[in-house]
Amino acid sequence: MEFDNSFEVPLPPAEAWPVLMDIKRIAPCMPGAELTEVVDDKTYKGKIGVRLGPVALTFAGTVRFEEIDNANHRARVKAQGTDAKGRGGANAAASFRLEPVANGSKVLVHTDLALSGSVAQYGRGVGMIQATAAQIINQFAGNLKAQLAAVPATATADAAAGASAPPPPAAKPISGFALMAKVLWDTIVRLFKRGPRAS
After folding, report:
1. Helices within 101-198 (DSSP H only)
2. Of the candidates 11, 4, 18, which has an alpha carbon nearest to the alpha carbon of residue 133?
């Protein structure tokens, strides 16, 4: 399944790009994520906890940058992970790019996700997967903005120059209850938007 997400950061692309490429710095902003190993400058190992409906899953895996275009602020990554309890796995290819906007930069993310095993059954509703992805991206963006707001301008300049800032505290996993509430609300909104059917 494929889906798109986007968020904005309060920095122009030239300053936002090195921050977003500093994986050790931004990984703790991702809800439920933990960076466990830096294999090299393009390959990282970690784990992430997510909920699909009532089921809590923890994936451990690898993320690798397939392409990095610093000049045009674009990148492509591939990620693969397996559930800690052996219930299946996930493979994803994602591309992201920056576009300038009035208040900084917009980050546009396109994801192609494939689930296998029992995990595919838990996430069989495309709407639920998209809602999960949207909530993760929204919380990540909020955490990242809070981190940037708390960092002095000199630290941002250091990041642009290649110096890594100390990582923030890890973000909390997303709430299963909040996710289910959002899926239910989105479904209700869609039903009302369709309007009454002709008899």
Report:
1. 118-122, 126-150, 153-160, 176-194
2. 4
Length of the chain counted residue by residue: 199
- Are the C-beta atoms of residues 23 and 159 closer than 8 Å to each other? no
Give the CB-side neighbour count of residue 54, counting CA atoms within 13 A: 0
C-alpha distance from residue 22 to each of 44, 47, 93, 163 (Å) = 12, 17, 19, 9
Residues 45-95 pLDDT 10s = 999 888 776 778 888 999 999 999 999 999 999 999 998 888 888 899 999
What interhelical angle do 176-194 and 126-150 show, nearest 10?
120
* CA atoms of 145 and 139, how far apart (whole Å): 10
